[in-house]
Structure formats: C-alpha cells, structure tokens
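name: query_chain
kind: protein
chains: 1
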Amino acid sequence: MPDALPFWKTKPLERMTRSEWESLCDGCGRCCLHKLRDDESGRLAFTNVACRLLNIPSCRCADYENRRRWVPDCVRLTPARVRKLDWLPPSCAYRLLAEGKDLHWWHPLVSGDPETVHRAGVSVRGRVVRERDAGPLEDHVVRWPGLVPPRAQGPAPEGPTLQRDEGPQAR
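structure:
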C-alpha cells in the first residue's frame, strides 16, 4: 500500500490544523525583515534589517506567542492574507501552496531537517543586521529577500547533503 500524501498536498490552507499551519513556516526569517513601500508608487522595497524579535542565528521569533505585544504591526498570517500580501518571499511555503505550487526540496517538511533552509541559502542567517544597529532603513535596501537563491531552485542536489553554512553571523 503506498504511503499517504503529506497534508500540504491534500488539504487547502483553510482546512489545516494550527499545528499543520505553523509547520509550514520554513524558518527562513525573510518575512521578519523590514520592508519599505513608496507612498506614491506603492512600490515595495526589501531591507536586510531584522525585526527586533528575530533571533538571527536561529531565524525564529524570540517571543512568537507574544510578538504582537512587542511589535503591534506584526502580521498574523491567515489563508486570506497570504493570498493578498505582495511581500511574502517567492520561496515562502504559505505563498507557494496558495499559488497551487509544491514545497521546495529544502523545506524542513520535505527534507526532514530544519537546517536545509539555511544550507540552501534561503534563510536570513548571516545576511541581516539587527534593527537597533541599522540606522535609516533606506540605507539597507536589498533585492535578495524577493528572490529564490540559485542553489535552492530546482531539484535537491545529488550526493551528500549540502554542507553546513558556517559563515559569519550578522548582528
């Protein structure tokens, strides 16, 4: 008897349990970067400045359950919001599934390893600055949060798993 398909391939976002929904987060931290929007054109710009609650080495929120107490404008993702937001990264599982696409090979639900998101170069680990150290956000505009890294595209690499990313950690 063949194995059952994983929940993300059989359930729409609206029918997922809270545990299933939360497990879709790959831990990349890209959604936790500050973004700028031009008032006149509406154009979006990503920055490499992390939210004050983002634990940069782990790429996880330091106080997820109480985050809105500390960061009132933190967006709580819902299936409806995911379909409307234009700033979710193209690699985001919520966005991919809302668009009818599958998860990438490096997603922890696919790989079984929470480190593959870092080794594939998708996470913000080692690439961002802390909010309190940044200064003007306009000085930190970058393109990479809106792009899927080349080594993360396509099928999983053959042979040994990607090497651990031991690069310097940004503060």
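note: The CA atoms of residues 29 and 59 lie 5 Å apart.
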